Amino acid sequence: MAISEKEVKHVAWLARLGLTDAEVQKFTRQLDVILEHAGKISELNVENVPPTSHAIPLKNVLREDKVGACLTPEDALSNAPKKEDQAFVVPRIV
Amino acid sequence: MELYQMTIHELHEKLLNKEVSAKEITDSVFSRIEEVEDKVKSYLTITKDVALEQAKLADEKIAAGGKVGPLAGIPTAIKDVMCTRGVRTTCGSKILDNFIPVYTSTAVQNLFDEGIVMTGKTNMDEFAMGSSTENSGFFPTRNPWDLERVPGGSSGGSAAAVAADEAVFSLGSDTGGSIRQPAALCGIVGMKPTYGLVSRYGLVAFASSLDQIGPFTKDVTDCAIVLNHLVRHDPMDSTSVKIDRPDYKEILINDLKGVRVGVPKELMAEGIDPKVKKVVEDAIKVLADNGAIVAETSLPNLEYGLSAYYIIAPAEASSNLARFDGVRYGYRAPDPDDLMDMYMRTRTEGFGDEVKRRIMLGTYALSAGYYEAYYGKAQKVRTLIVRDFNKAFEDFDVLVSPTSPTVAFKIGEKVANPLQMYLSDICTIPVNLAGLPGISVPCGTVDGLPVGLQIIGKALGEETILRVAYSFEQNFNWSEKPKLETRD
After folding, report:
1. What is the ipTM of this complex?
2. A5-43 CATH pick, 1.10.20, 2.60.40, 1.10.150, 3.10.20
3. CB contact, 8 Å: B360 with chain A?
4. Residue B99 with chain A: CB contacts under 8 Å
5. To the nearest whole angstrom, how far is the Cα of B209 from the nearest Cα of chain A?
6. Which is nearest to B78 in space by CA: B45, B53, B103?
7. Quick check: is B284 in a domain?
8. Is residue B144 part of a domain?
9. What value, to the nearest 5°, has the Cα angle with vertex B455 and ends B454 and B461?
10. How close is the nearest chain A Cα to the Cα of B65, in Å?
11. Tens of pLDDT along B387-412?
12. How many Cα atoms occupy the beta-carbon half-sphere of B353 within 13 Å?
């Protein structure tokens, strides 16, 4: 097994996803098959190969430090599930 | 011939000659949408009001004798992954069911500036994760060639809309094949440009180092025309490439003499349906018969490409999708007990199964103890894939392959087996890993279902692949059309 039910539960928790027991079983089965396939890359010796994060590398992309157009508070809050004055409202944290 | 059946370049000529108005073209396309949309289900949102307003503007500009570009007044469908100010943008997900963007993505804005008529936002696999459009949080789209089959994905709605003449052209996004594979399965032209050529600003992010926007069109000429207006440097996207853009339409010539075409043997091997392989071999013969120099080549590390992709893409997705927390936009689960309860229920109720699978895969691949074995290693494998392509391009101008290993499959056929679904993209994924441009052009049928020929170019080699695609199209002369029926 590439991944256990316990690991799936842990990963789901890290990703803030709730799973039913049946879903834990289903996803464990599916992720196991996928990870086993993905594990194929362990066959390769890539010790001296540098990683590629972007295939078309660009360096030092900067723009002028000039104020441009930006969102109004009304726009920024227009999709808020809950808002008050100029703030997003969330459940009490402290 | 009805207006809705025509290409961009045909309609543009009629507009300039004042034979038709943008309003008439728009009405024709909307009558077609009314006629067939119930069967095909290409659209998540139809924007007729916006379209009529834009058509009016185009007509006013033409009447006033103003200079209009080739896209003015052309009905266009946009994949629902690109933000459109004031128009619902769902990304195919329940979590964005009520999301109304406050700005427009650069790619779409560039087309708005050219005077397009937006017909609507098209269906897609949720967050562009899938190869069949069955992962849409709303409903599946159907293949116009057989309504019981998938249109491919993730840009299935955009592909089906153009194939069924519900739009003259459309935009999609391609992370591992999501433009080219549905274009192949729906019998139209679809192109993924070089990474960074089209701005990703306002494109809902899936895997940021792989995502790229591109067009679906009815022919290669239209593809070149649309590309001319998509390629602009954008300061809002730090990966946007600055180039002296050629006129992609002007360089279209029907001439293959001396063009070196490589056929990677790994992409014609087992896993490719023998009937699809035969159609593609015949297509390659057409290239050779018209002067191309064809030879076999090899991309030895290709078999590891799919594995690397299904680590890298989910890893990037798990980071990108962390923003969906119910705080600032999108769905929030009702009456949460506390913050954690809000996060958990919002994401659990808002995301579908495939998105959850990929978030978990990515979280796993990035987690302590697994990072080096999975993500770190996959990025090194990515380097090997890039090197394989670089080596092949020392000897060849383009590489060709099937776009998809099979023709369109039945709705439901692969839903229970995610790995089988992932294998649908085996020919297209390596191209994204290496950031290269690729185009799919129709090259025949198997049992009445279309097959696509993929033409892959060097980075920023759009001119060459467009020229090869155009020459193939001119010499192959394919004109079959879908019947919008269920086949036996």
Report:
1. 0.96
2. 1.10.20
3. yes
4. 79
5. 6
6. B45
7. no
8. yes
9. 145
10. 33
11. 999 999 999 999 999 999 999 999 99
12. 15
